[in-house]
Amino acid sequence: xxxxxxxxxxxxxxxxxxxxxxxxxxxxxxxxxxxxxxxxxxxxxxxxxxxxxxxxxxxxxxxxxxxxxxxxxxxxxxxxxxxxxxxxxxxxxxxxxxxxxxxxxxxxxxxxxxxxxxxxxxxxxxxxxxxxxxxxxxxxxxxxxxxxxxxxxxxxxx
Length: 158
Hints:
This protein has 158 residues and is of the alpha+beta class.
């Protein structure tokens, strides 16, 4: 296996994939990332099983957990408020970055808009996805502060 590559298998892996499916359905419906307690309750699982499944998904780079073990990022969704609020006809979602703000409407197959500002200049940025196309098609730049191969060195910064 390559560095950072994880295979999610076995009993824990099977439950982790089930938890993942439930997690993303809940995010789509509500716009919010559920906590460990809600996941356990909804899936009829104990805290230990939920924690092991979340750790498995985090190791596979599907999620990012905070220090207490709650979900901080369920890519491309953020569990915390960020400068990237994605508005759709269903609900609003928090994205981790500009790239994720574009990914959310594409992932959900829905139109979406994110109004934010450049972190360097403060200039207004209006990102939109309409009918599966990113707008504006010209003039918008998404800057990555580190090469993609190093995103997971500090995914919260990237």
